[in-house]
Amino acid sequence: MRRLDPRPTGLFRGYELTRLIAATLLLGIIGLYYFQAVNPKTWTGIARDDTAPSDDSVRAAVSPEEAARWTEIIVPIPGSEGEDGGARDPEQIDAFKEEAQVIQDREVLTAEEMASYWRLFRWARAEPSVELENRARRDLFFTHFAQAPATYRGELVRLKLNVARVLPNSDLKQNSADVKQVYEAWGTTSDSQSYPYVVVFPDLPPQLPIGVNLVEQAVFTGFFHKLMLYKTPDGQTHFAPLFLGRIRWTENPVSAHYKRQASASGWIIGGVIAVILIIFGTQWWYSRPMAVTIPERPVDQKALDRFLETGEIPESPPSGPPEWLLSDEPPPEDVK
Q: Are residues 185 and 142 in contact, defined by beta-carbon separation less than 8 angstroms?
């Protein structure tokens, strides 16, 4: 026969269960705060530029196949005698030098400077980024452009940028390059530290997102135009070297590492929930009423029949050992 034992025997007693759940939740919260703290986007958000578009415009991730299919658009310069689209054509260079005479460094970009601006843009658009990189200078740094901008105007330079912002610009007036939209990126290099470069390019690689507070890396190769004046969100004025060229996205190993860490946040949340469910399940298992099996006692059928016939209640068998076992007499014959 089986019956339920109503007495629970829980694994945890008193406040042990509550304390264990609280400790598990605390460890999960500490883990989430850690992964959030090591993510650089957490801290770049503190210095957010409120005048720029929000991160809602950031592109979604692209597949490797889509990235492999993407190609730059090459637009040769009509009538140019130079093999590289005009950047080394003597006539093009002379025309640029004449147009560049009106450029004013450490000032905003003016309409008079747009002729030289679009000429450099056409030079960059006439060649792929690989060819531009092959002959670009790598020995020029931020201080060169800041101290002697006129000396290096029109120089083709390669920059390894830490990109913080990428914005499209479709509000363009009629221009000699006949373009309706360009892209503008802001970023720093290892030598410029906190001082940014501003670069303009015609084609956006699919891996490079649009938005602000980015943590991306790219290789930009382009022509130096001027030191452009700009205002910070707090109203201060600074200048940044302005380049026109092409950009090539490169994977940021630090950003990739943080993305992998960010994905661990979901595992932490899932792990905490799983541990809590295991704790509750274990407590329920040990606290549920237990089914106890009671062995059946043998029934004396003769005594039962005699009781039914005569109503005589049979005597209970004596408890303890039999008398012959406690005496010196030999056991009865039926025991032998």
A: no
Per-residue pLDDT of 33-67, as tens digits, reads 776 666 655 555 544 444 443 444 455 566 677 77
What's phi and psi for 199, nearest 5 deg? -125, 145
Of how many residues is the chain composed?
Answer: 336
- Bridge partners, residue 229, by sequence: 239
Distance of CA 301 to the CA centre of its chain: 80
Distance CA 268, CA 26 (A): 12
Q: b/e per residue, 239-253, with b = 16+ CB within 10 A?
A: bbbbbbbbbbbbebe
Q: What percent of the chain has pLDDT over 70?
A: 66
Token pair 């060649």 in the structure block, residue: 127
Cα–Cα distance for residue pair 116/102, rounded to 1 Å: 9
* Helix then strand then coil, % of the chain, to nearest 5: 40, 20, 40
pTM here is: 0.63
Phi and psi at 195, nearest 5°, equal -90, 125
Pairwise CA distance, residues 127 & 238, whole Å: 32
**Is the distance from CB of 128 to CB of 178 less than 8 angstroms?**
no
Picking from 184, 82, 171, 180, the residue whose alpha carbon sits closest to that of residue 131 is 82
CA 86/CA 112 separation, integer angstroms: 21
**What is the C-alpha separation between 192 and 283, in angstroms, rounded?**
60
